[in-house]
Design brief:
Elements: E1 2-7, H1 11-22, E2 27-33, H2 36-46, E3 50-54, H3 62-76, E4 81-86, H4 92-100, E5 104-107, H5 112-123, H6 131-140, H7 152-162, H8 167-174, H9 178-192, H10 197-206
Parallel strand pairs: 1-2, 1-3, 3-4, 4-5
Helix pairs in contact: 2-3, 3-4, 7-9, 7-10, 8-9
Length: about 220
């Protein structure tokens, strides 16, 4: 069961999202919030698997709420994935939220199956980004003074993490031991200053270390 916290300041939208989620057998709403500060508190108390986060919130906005929830979840050693729900796909705040640790976004006007699919995707460790947004994140890296230098093996493992492969699957793909994979992933997390796979992917995209979705010439 995927446990979801719904955050939106509009009661009608919030109840609509709750209704969509509760109609699915594998999803359940464990709480709701109408502002950023309440969202941060609820996330700490309820430890949801996924937070559906609106960007435009009274008081603490969605970007800052995302940052605080992700920081607290990492400190507690538990995964809480943030999925942004937004009206406009071109909203620059989406980029800020992804940089703050969100795993992706979904449009409020998207079909029900797209919203449900996005929740399941981020809950299972996948990143939900349109190619145009991923490209914008990569361009942001040009403004950074430095970025971590990955080893050749870490650079091989990173896109496999983005594909959602487990350690054993990565080991088989690269024909190396699973313990070796774990060692490289630990080093990768340290260099990216993250503690889980989804944040490793979004961080790598924002730093320009990972092109996602991959170009056609990168596909095997």
């Amino acid at each position: 069961m995927i446990r979801v916290l719904v955050v939106d300041d509009h009661p009608v939208v919030r109840q609509g999202l709750i209704g969509v989620i509760e109609s699915e057998a594998d999803l359940t709403v464990v709480g709701q919030a109408a502002d950023g500060l309440t969202a941060v508190t609820a996330a700490a108390e309820l430890a949801p698997d996924v937070v559906l986060m609106d960007l435009k919130l009274p008081g603490l906005d969605g970007v800052e709420a995302t940052k605080q929830i992700v920081t607290a979840a990492n400190r507690a050693g538990r995964p809480t994935q943030i999925l942004i729900v937004t009206v406009f796909e071109s909203d620059d705040n989406i980029l800020d939220a992804i940089s703050a640790g969100a795993q992706g976004y979904v449009l409020k006007a998207a079909p029900t199956h797209d919203i449900i699919g996005a929740i399941r995707d981020v809950a299972s460790g996948h990143t939900v980004l349109a190619p145009s947004l991923a490209a914008s994140l990569a361009r942001r890296s040009a403004d950074r003074i430095s970025q971590p230098k990955l080893s050749d093996r870490e650079s091989e493992i990173l896109p496999l993490i983005a594909e959602g492969l487990s350690n054993s699957q990565i080991a088989r793909r690269l024909m190396i031991g699973e313990s070796t994979v774990k060692t490289h992933i630990k080093s990768l997390f340290a260099k990216l200053e993250v503690s889980d796979r989804t944040h490793a992917v979004t961080r790598a995209i924002s730093l320009g270390l990972l092109v996602w979705p991959p170009r056609s010439d990168q596909l095997s």
